[in-house]
Amino acid sequence: MYNLLKGKKGIIFGALNEHSIAWKVAERAHEEGAEFVLTNAPIAMRMGEINALAEKTGSQVIPADATSMEDLTNLVEKSMEILGGKIDFVLHSIGMSVNVRKGRHYTDSKYDFTHKGFDVSALSFHKTMNVLYNKKAMNEWGSIVALTYMAAQRVFPDYNDMADNKAYLESIARSFGYFFGRDHKVRVNTVSQSPTPTTAGSGVKGFDGFISYAEKMSPLGNATALECADYTISLFSDLTKKVTLQNLFHDGGFSNMGVSDAVMEKFTEE
User: Fold this and answer.
1) Fewer CB within 10 Å of terminal CB in the chain, N or C?
2) With b meaning 16 or more CB within 10 Å and e meaning fewer, what string describes 181-206?
């Protein structure tokens, strides 16, 4: 390990189980010397194994509904109390589509479901930064990262309204990131990860096909959850102090590919 985060303090949203990218980020942040608070929605905490992660990393857990300004305010205030000061890094790794869960097609969305998914997956990022910004809770040269997917830019039919949520999430990172950078020297970025077999991702119809197709398209192959964690750690570190307002593709090169030999072979007759 490199002690990249020695002395740094953070908040990590969204660790559900060992398959979660947030879980891997927490493990790597601990290995790199960071102290942090773990948080997730109360219902997710009942479903997951976050307490085991807390014990492993010497962390405390604060339940919070990321759509609630009251919960987020409490989370930030208690985190600063527990950690003994301002925050150096935050990971937003939460997303949910009720339409996907309920099997509603994109062309037949139930808009109450759409609004709930939008609030959890995207607007929660704005709310989180609102609290951090207005409470001046971040140290200068701190880093805020949210996880996204390239369905925000390109059509993946079964990704449903999560594509809209991710597009808005990325826009929030740019817009709020400007003010956070200008006023508090805090950087804000999104990481557009390869399709990864997390609990959330695996709920998307045809997800196995996503993974296989991306693997054949990407010259370096798909990035794993652990590799995404490593990349995220670099964005939390002082090595990337001038990287902000970026949507950073961490996908083995998939995002710049038109077609690959491996994919062409599937459609070319011998």
Assistant:
1) C
2) eeebebbbbbbbbbbbebebbeebee
Rounded CA separation 177/240 (Å): 15
Beta bridge partners of 60: 37
Only one residue has tokens 């709930």, namely 116
How many C-beta neighbours within 10 Å does residue 174 have?
A: 15
Q: Is 95 helix (H, G, I), strand (E, B) or coil?
A: coil
pLDDT, tens digit, 9 for 90 and up, residues 50-90: 999 999 999 999 999 999 999 999 999 999 999 999 999 99
- Structure confidence by residue, pLDDT tens digits, 170-197: 999 999 999 999 999 999 999 999 999 8
Q: For 85-140, write each residue's pLDDT tens digit.
A: 999 999 999 999 999 999 999 999 999 999 999 999 999 999 999 999 999 999 99
CA angle 173, 10, 179 (to 5 degrees): 30
List the structure tokens of 242.
């001038």
* Distance (Å, whole) CA 153 – CA 195: 14
Question: What angle do the packed helices 124-134 and 69-83 form, to 10 degrees?
Answer: 50
Residue 4 CA to residue 31 CA, distance in Å, equals 9
Percent of the chain with pLDDT over 70: 96
Q: Which of 105, 112, 232 is nearest to 161 (CA)?
A: 105
| Burial class of residue 31 (count of CB atoms within 10 Å of its CB; 0-12, 13-18, 19+) | middle
- Residue found under tokens 């083995």: 252
